[in-house]
Amino acid sequence: MIIQTQDDVTAAVLQEMHRTPDARTRELLALLVKHLHAFVREARLTEREFQDAIGYINAIGRETTPSHNEAMLLAGALGVSNLICLMNNGALGTRPTQANNLGPFYRADSPRCEDGASIVRSSTPGSPLTFRGQVTDAGGKPIAGADVHVWQSSPAGLYENQDPSQAEMNLRGIFTTQADGSFSFRSVKPAGYPVPTAGPTGALLAAQKRHNMRPAHLHFLIHKPGYKTIASQVYDPEDPHLETDSQFGVTRALIGNFVRTGSGYELSFTFQLEPGEARLPKPPISQKVTA
Ligand SMILES: [Fe+2]
User: Fold this and answer.
1) How confident is the model at residue 115 (pLDDT cuts 50, 70, 90)?
2) Is the pLDDT of residue 241 over 80?
3) What are the tens digits of pLDDT across the range 183-229?
4) What is the pLDDT at residue 290?
5) C-alpha of residue 255 to centroid of ligand 1, in Å
6) How far does residue 42's CA lie from ligand 1's centre (Å)?
7) Alpha-carbon dihedral of residues 114, 120, 126, 131, nearest 10 degrees?
8) What are the DSSP calls for 81-150, one per residue?
9) What separation in Å is there between the alpha carbon of 141 and the centre of ligand 1?
10) What is the pLDDT of residue 214?
11) 49 CA distance to ligand 1 centroid (A)?
12) Alpha helices of the chain — where are they, by DSSP H?
């Protein structure tokens, strides 16, 4: 159709997109255009703001490298990652869930470890931590033979992929649940850390006078055929940024209980899996930053 005024633009675009053969793609793109146009109208977006927005989106791509995923970081800072997670887990968002954001720092192919092994692979500060996990189905029945990918930042504030001074795959490992659904490993108690601010996510946080801290946590990804694969994070209840997480990951169900022992801490946590598709996510990064 020939556009006469601004009122015609949305209909013109939708009409051209109507031929999209795949039904879900057609639905998603139509909704995207409707909401995007509605946003532009409601915000009365100026030409200068539009140019700034285009530059901002282009910068997300420029900032992204094999060792850094800016789009994933921004999705977290906008609350989209956790919204999608909570809508798609916990009986489709009707119940609390141990599922949580994958985050921008998951790497596939970390080393397989014996039960109880340490994931500290180079000199790392922090108090010793023993983690004892349990993986069950929704009815509490133990799930044996599940792969549990584990990763965390160094208490110095960086994941190994961000930090050439840490060994390759430091504080990462893959464990397998035992016959009773348990797994355990040794590490260091995590500390809160700042998310990178060199790119568009940092600009967003600065413009909104938001801090860039994440409360201390451990990451998990649990995979077993027959069950929906979940990413999870377990948070430190004493972290000062629990209520203002810059990635909006913290949920009530994921606040852990670190118990002091003679030499460090112990943390026990149970993860429940739902029936569903066992599918490993595409890793947001593929390698460590070079010096
Ligand atoms: Fe993290």
Assistant:
1) very high
2) yes
3) 999 999 999 999 999 999 999 999 999 999 999 999 999 999 999 99
4) 83
5) 14
6) 35
7) -20
8) HHHHHHHHSHHHHTS--S-----TT--S-PPB--TT-B---S---S-EEEEEEEEEETTS-B--S-EEEE
9) 29
10) 97
11) 32
12) 9-17, 23-43, 47-63, 70-77, 80-88, 90-93, 200-207
Contacts of 116 (CB under 8 A, 6+ apart): 184, 185, 186
Question: How far apart are the C-alpha atoms of 159 and 107, rounded to whole Å?
Answer: 11
Poorest-pLDDT segment among 161-165, 209-213, 221-225, 285-289: 285-289
Spatial distance between the Cα atoms of 200 and 58, rounded to a whole number of angstroms: 10
Sign of the alpha-carbon dihedral angle for 283, 173, 121, 268? positive
Q: How far apart are alpha carbons 177 and 233 in whole angstroms?
A: 17
Taking Cα atoms as reference points, which of 139, 86, 81 lies closest to residue 274?
A: 139
Q: How far is the CA of 99 from the centre of ligand 1 (A)?
A: 14
pLDDT at residue 288 tops 90: no
pLDDT(238) > 90: yes
CA 234 to centroid of ligand 1, rounded, Å: 10
Using CB atoms within 10 A of its CB, is residue 33 exposed (0-12), middle (13-18) or buried (19+)? middle
